[in-house]
Each structure stands twice: as C-alpha cells, then as structure tokens.
Amino acid sequence: MSTFRAVVIEKNHTGQTVALTDFSEADRMEGDVELRVTHTTVNYKDGLAITGKAPVVRRFPMIPGVDCAGVVETSSHPDFQPGDRVILNGWGTGETHLGAFAEKSRVKGDWLVPLPADLTPSEAMAIGTAGYTAMLSILALEKHGLQPADGPVIITGAAGGVGSIAITLLAKAGWHVIASTGRAEEADYLEGLGAAEIIDRNELSSPGRPLGKERWIAGVDSVGSHTLANVLSMTRYGGAVTACGLAQGMDLPGSVAPFILRGVSLLGIDSVMCPKPRRLEAWARLATDLDRERLGRITSTIRLEDVIAAGTDILAGKVRGRLVVEIEQE
Ligand code: NDP
After folding, report:
1. Which domains are present in the chain?
2. How many of the other CB atoms lie within 10 Å of CB of 91?
3. d(C-alpha 156, C-alpha 233), whole Å
C-alpha cells in the first residue's frame, strides 16, 4: 500500500487527535489533478483546525492546511499538465477536502492558479491565504475609489500575517499606515515594513462610542468585535473598512452611526470561495507589488514536523508575520 506523510486530524467520542503520520494514497478524495506538495504555510484558520478551537474541520479524518504550492504529477484537467507549478488557496481544502499539510494532494483543477512566473513556491506560501487576503482587501479599498492622498489607513492585527503583508503593500503604494498591535516590542519590525505610526490595540479593543474623532479614511481589519466597531466609528466621512477576520471575536458590537452619518462602508472579504478571476488579479498584483526583501523579513521557515506546534502558537498570538512549511527543497 502506497502512503505519504501527512498531518491527520481524527475525531472519536473522547475528542480530537492530531498527529504526523502515514496516510494511504487510496484514501485521498476525488479530484482531477494530483500534486506533489512542495510548500505550504500555517494560517490562523489552520491553528483553529489543528487545536479544534473552532469547527473548521467538517469531515474526519482530515488533513488540515488551506494553502499549498506544488507540482502537477498527473492531470485530466485541460488547463494543467504534469510538471506545471501551481498554487491553491481555500476552496474548502483543510475543511471539507483533504488539505495541504501532506506530501501529496489530489484536488480539483478548477481550484488551481498557475504559480506566477515571478514568484518562487516558497514566496507564494510566504504570501499564502493571509497575503492573498491582504491583497483582496486592498483591491476592495481601491475599487471603493480610495487612494493614499485621501488620508491614513489603519491596519489591525498588524504583526500577524494579514496585517504584516497589508502594511508592506500599502506603505509601498504610498499610504500613511497606522499599525494597531498588542505587541509593543514589535515596533521596529512594523516600522521596518513601512508603518508610519503604531498604536496600542487596547485603544480599540473595549466597548466604544457610536462615533469617535475621525482618524483614518480606510481600514484593513482582521480582528473583528469591538476593534472593528471602533475602527468604523473613527473612520472619516466617505471612507471604507475591510473586514476579513475574527482574532478578537466574531461579534460586531457597534452602531449604524458611521454608515448613516458619515457614509462609511464596511467591505466584506472572503478568500475561500472568491471567484477565480479575482484570485488571478490578486496574485498578479502580489507578484508585481510585493517587496521580496520585506517579504523575506516577515517569513520564517519550518518543517512538516513543526506544523502541529505552530498551529497552537498562531492562536496564542506568538507567530510574527508568516510561516512557510518547506516539504521539498527548491
Ligand atoms: P495571525 O494570527 O497571523 O494574526 C492575527 C493578529 O491579530 C495577531 O498577530 C494579533 O496582532 C491580533 N490579535 C490576536 N488576538 C487578538 C485579540 N484578542 N484582540 C485583538 N487583536 C488580536 O492571523 P492571520 O493574519 O493569518 O489572520 C487574521 C484573521 O483573519 C484571522 O481571524 C483569520 O481567520 C482571518 N482570515 C480570514 C480570511 C477570509 O477569507 N476571510 C482569510 C485569511 C485570514 P498583534 O499582535 O499585532 O496585536
């Protein structure tokens, strides 16, 4: 029986177990493309899956991991041939379909994006869903018509994955970036990425007023709860805030005042089911806009053996920037 190494989550009457183990090729799920996974990454959602702290996993056994870069080994999909380098973000991998923390993966070709020519597989996973979501957020702000000359942008969860890449991209585009973080010790890191101002996240994390002093024209929020409510309440007239995450909480305890009195917009960002044309646009922009030297600065590389511990660390807020899991050397 052929097997490959994978992180596998099982569930029984006593709860969830997770281990790096051998997985049978015969037990892979349906798909028209077989991949050799060369790199993957650990996102916040993967931490939720590994620890079982939120019901991310919908079938057991599950191989977690929502992002991968790999090489096509076999394909009956018209767009992909053996040897093609591809990336995959979301579409339920690691949730409903066996995911990326594995040496092999069988997936639907419709989910795959060709690896942009200018990116290495390791860089693509340093970006991962976090960076691709940061770019989806920026595209949404641009579509809203906002530009650097309009005023400052606030980024919450600044030292995390989405936050770090959003700072890098927006600072390079000329925005005055205000970074909100709970890690004062990361000030040098955040300024190195391009943050012009750093604020303590405690300023935003408690119940606030319906409207506050207007401080920024745009926001990229990955935190939710009171933080997002306060960001909205301090957004200038006509501004917009993107919401992609729930690091503080799933709730949104605010008021409609920013919407009805200041014409502020709340723009929802979903990376998982995002249609392919938007994905291709986001990846093309990441390949051209993202400073590789800064990307390198926010990235740490780990091995498949380290993924389970990294899943716990990311939920504890101990991971700075992005983690690349190198399964095969470039
Ligand atoms: P990270 O863990 O890398 O970053 C999250 C950051 O949020 C932390 O680094 C920390 O930043 C801040 N944070 C953590 N806990 C709290 C808290 N209790 N209160 C306030 N701030 C807190 O995760 P990612 O960047 O990968 O993801 C961020 C969020 O976005 C997650 O909720 C994730 O599920 C979501 N997400 C959603 C996507 C979508 O498709 N909608 C796609 C990708 C991510 P600091 O230390 O600087 O304060």
Report:
1. 3-115+298-326 (3.90.180.10), 129-268 (3.40.50.720)
2. 21
3. 14
- Whole-number pLDDT of residue 27: 95
Please compute the mean of the pLDDT values over residues 2-11 and round it to a whole number. Answer: 97
Residue burial 11-42, b: 16+ Cβ < 10 Å; e: rest: eeeeebebebeebeeeebeebebbbebbbbbb
Q: Considering only CA atoms, which residue is closest to atom 36 of ligand 1? A: 245
Candidates 117, 119, 201, 120; CA nearest to 158 is 201
CA distance 153 to 24: 48
Choose one of 41, 43, 186, 324 to mutate for the ligand 1 pocket test, by most ligand atoms within 8 angstroms of C-beta. Answer: 43
- Four-residue CA torsion sign, 17, 18, 20, 22: positive
Whether residue 330 is predicted with pLDDT greater than 90 in this model: the reply is no
Is the CB of 51 inside a 6 Å radius of any atom of ligand 1? no
Distances (CA, A) of 217 to 62, 170, 222, 232: 42, 13, 17, 10
Distance in angstroms (rounded) separating the CA atoms of residues 219 and 162:
12
Question: What separation in Å is there between the alpha carbon of 60 and the centre of ligand 1?
Answer: 26
Query: d(Cα 212, Cα 230) in Å, to the nearest integer?
Result: 8
Closest CA to 40 of 83, 96, 80, 94: 94
| CA atoms within 13 Å, Cβ hemisphere of 212 | 17
| Cα atoms in the Cβ-side hemisphere of radius 13 Å centred on 191 | 9
Half-sphere exposure of residue 275, counting CA atoms within 13 Å on the CB side?
2
Q: Which pLDDT does position 234 carry in this prediction?
A: 98
pLDDT tens string 182-241: 999 999 999 999 999 999 999 999 999 999 999 999 999 999 999 999 999 999 999 999
Residue whose token pair is 């799920």: 29
pLDDT given for residue 137 in this prediction? 98
Instruction: Please give the number of the atom of ligand 1 that sits closest to the Cα of 271.
Output: 40
Give the DSSP per-residue string, 4-34: EEEEEEEEETTEEEEEEEEEEGGGPPP-SEE
What's the predicted TM-score (pTM) here? 0.95
